[in-house]
Amino acid sequence: MTTSDAPLAWVEVRLYADLAELAGETERAVPVGAPRSVKDVIESCGVPHTELGLVSVDTHPVGLDHLVTGGERIAVYPPFRRLDLADTTTVVPPPIAPRFVLDVHLGTLARRLRLLGFDAWYRTEADDRELADVAVEQQRILLTRDRGLLMRRRITHGYCPRSDDPEEQALEVIERYGLQASLAPLTRCVRCNAALEAVDREEVLDRIPPRTRARFDTFARCTACAQLYWPGSHIDAVTGFLERAAADPPARRS
Question: Considering the entire predicted model, what is its pTM?
């Protein structure tokens, strides 16, 4: 019997928590012909390796390059937020001060993250290669709903937002990476991502609409594009979003 004629062996994959949502099921049998890496097996279920926190084979924690040959049982867990499993986690911990790069379909999410004070790289013309380059070279967390992009081996850190709503997506990211203590609201330009600085009202008086001059005394200016910011009629909605983001865990809509 040739290798190609040999019967396939199978491994059983069990996916926990929201990883089952990505895969569309909790358990799946995956065929194994030649020895196959754990990364390849799990990603064949539709779950990018960047979504993983811990992988075990027959109850033993393993790395993504671990090979299975058939008959094994693989348990796949998302990152643990409340437990310290540093000695057994499968993936490399994210950067201490996380920065993000977002694909072209997540522009509103980029603005939400900037509103919360996070460094969020976004370009409307960026293709997959540039996104991957930025993620790797600048050590940024890649946010995309393109699971194929997250499955590229060179991508170390990434997340696939589950919700279609940008505000909910932002809350997912905050919870996923435990960023409540890192919020710095209204310190970054939502248009270009640069830092904001306080500016004297008189210095920019000629750029302020007459009605705004009469109502506000506090202004900020982008250090890169010079966009002006001041408290506006939308402040209540912004405040509500910031309060939800700061909750532990972030407050989700019912």
Answer: 0.88
